[in-house]
Amino acid sequence: MRMEWWILLSVYIVAAGILFFIPKNKIRLAAAAFLFNQVITFLIGLVVVELGLLEYPIRLFASINRASFTFEYLAFPVVCAAFSVWYPNNRRLLFQYGYYAGFSSVLTIVEVIIEKYTDLIRYIHWEWYISWITICISLFIVRLFCVWFFAKGRA
Amino acid sequence: MLIEHLILIIMWLFGIAGFILFIPRKDRRKGILAYLMFQAIIWLCDMPSFKYGLLSAPVRILPKATELTITINYIFYPVLFSIYYVHRRINSRIWSKFIYFFVWVSAITLFDSVIERYTDLLEYKFMTWYWMWIYIGFLAYVSQICCNWFFKEKAMVHMD
User: Fold this and answer.
1) Which residues of B touch A66 (CB under 8 A)?
2) How far apart are CA B154 and CA B8, in angstroms?
3) What is the predicted pLDDT for the residue at A155?
């Protein structure tokens, strides 16, 4: 099996592992963040591929979907769920900004490494900082959604 | 403009308008969650269905990026499910719940079969209308179980 498939497999295992660590009392927050992130990422991911900015040469469901199912359906939403669950609500604003920057940076660094050394993703008209910015914005939108969703007077 | 494109536009408009008009303000959170849940499940199930050629979508948006039908999976059916979910009566008898479910699934299947037959938006290969009924029934049932689970407990504020 090629290295790329091992990476995809390990993404699934790690994602499942992260879900396992989410505290039971925050599981609804995790689910809401996961689902809402998926809605954003799935559509934007497809648009980006359609415009030819990015390419995923090795991917799941290759014959029908040219975007990365693994990243957009599972990996990023899971990370986003973790992001929301452990969000440092009570810390200083600077710490919260750092939290955003930390998540975005780790994801971007992993993506850049994967781009460089494997065929899982290939940048065409894309740069690492676009990834960083879009990831950061997605996290922010999901955070806004979750704050609204779980605010007073819920269903 | 092709009739297919017109239908796609109508589905988008109806999806957006339907969500605004037919989901009461107080049920907005419930509606959104039902929308998200159905959307996630239909994507997951449609991936293998399209991959193994049960059905296909010749006319679609973002045709280069995906073979799947974004309009239906992303907005139209999820919004219809969301409307279904917030309007169902929780305390009614089991058979009236079943009839409500039955009617909804049948209506979606009918719509699906009609656009399959008369347009190029969908094309059944190994799929037939009764399998489609079961498929949509399955999607709706699973989504409903997940949503019911989500709203089971009153205390669901854990944002600190």
Assistant:
1) 64-66
2) 39
3) 43
DSSP count for chain B of H helices, then E strands: 6, 2
In a domain, A60, yes or no: yes
Instruction: Establish if A73 belongs to a structural domain.
Output: yes
Residue A22 lies in a domain: no
pLDDT digits (tens, 9 = 90+) for B96-109: 999 999 999 999 99
Which one of A35, A46, A147 has the shortest CB-CB distance to B70? A46
Question: With contacts defined as CB-CB under 8 Å, which chain A residues touch B85?
Answer: none
Q: Please state the φ and ψ torsions of residue B56, each to the nearest 5 degrees.
A: -145, 170
| Whether A146 and B159 lie within 8 Å, measured CB to CB | yes
Domain total in chain A: 1
Chosen from B27, B36, B79 to mutate, greatest number of chain A CBs within 10 A: B36
Domain residues for the domain of B116 are 3-150
Contact call for A154 and B29, based on CB within 8 A: yes
Q: Does a structural domain hold residue B160?
A: no
Among B146, B135, B63, B67, CA closest to B106:
B135
pTM for this predicted structure:
0.91
Give the domain range for residue A60. Answer: 3-11+27-148
pLDDT digits (tens, 9 = 90+) for A23-71: 999 999 999 999 999 999 999 999 999 999 999 999 999 999 999 999 9
Of B36, B66, B151, the CB nearest to A36: B36
Environment class of residue A78 by beta-carbon count within 10 Å: exposed (0-12), middle (13-18) or buried (19+)? Answer: buried
Model confidence pLDDT, tens digit, residues A122-131:
999 999 999 9
Total domains present in chain B: 1
Q: What is the pLDDT of residues B40-89, one digit of tens each?
A: 999 999 999 999 999 999 999 999 999 999 999 999 999 999 999 999 98
**Structural domain contains residue A155:** no
Rounded distance between C-alpha atoms, residue B122 and residue B73, angstroms: 12
